Amino acid sequence: MVSTFYAKIFFVKQVIIKTLQNLTDSEIDQLNEASEREFKVSLPPKEKMLDRHFFLLEQRKEVLAMGQLLPVEPIKFNSEEFFVLGIGGIIAKQKGKGYGKAIMAAIKDWLVNRNKTGIGFCKLKNKGFYEKCGFLTNIDLLNRFVYLGTEKFYADSENECIFYMDGNDQFMEKVLNNPDQVVLPIPPVW
Ligand SMILES: CC(C)(COP(=O)(O)OP(=O)(O)OC[C@H]1O[C@@H](n2cnc3c(N)ncnc32)[C@H](O)[C@@H]1OP(=O)(O)O)[C@@H](O)C(=O)NCCC(=O)NCCS
User: Fold this and answer.
1) The CATH number of domain 2-184 is 3.40.630.30
2) Is 88 in the pocket of ligand 1 (CB under 6 A)?
3) What is the pTM of this model?
């Protein structure tokens, strides 16, 4: 009985949410390794990640899956300013085990509890994953999302997709109902 209890604790998987300051060196190393492996880019320098929240699915000290929320603000659109959260860095170390979905469920809770809009950009091949996680997707709007000062950001927009969840500001609903460009303060590769 007692050993079963300890066995369960030993193998428990949980999503923990941390800011950069609270990440251990091992967690940073694991995030960086995963980013290099999956996206062929290292994490940005620490000073550029101070305002991010990191979502980590951990078992003992191993990071099984990860994701991030970062402020993308302000987004100027149709004479309004919006303060949304970018969803990025979603990686499952082992695929097809529900690890990615666990991260997205925690991100969804975070957004819903705060009534915030969350937006991410992904490859078309991952569209179904985000839909399974309860997010809406759109493949027609990409060329309207531009980074401040650029005409068009996505050279290969046919293979990309937007996934999102609207908060109180109904940002994406407004974007869908107005043909203007959406001017982002940072490039949409978060
Ligand atoms: C995309 C990724 C995070 C998915 O994580 P995962 O742990 O393999 O996915 P899960 O096992 O949690 O799958 C959740 C559900 O989505 C489905 N799913 C997973 N990947 C899918 C895909 N590419 N297309 C359609 N459905 C998918 C699963 O079948 C599952 O469905 P179910 O709930 O009906 O059982 C993972 O494949 C990954 O790390 N890819 C490499 C990095 C990457 O491209 N990240 C996305 C950046 S935008």
Assistant:
1) yes
2) no
3) 0.94
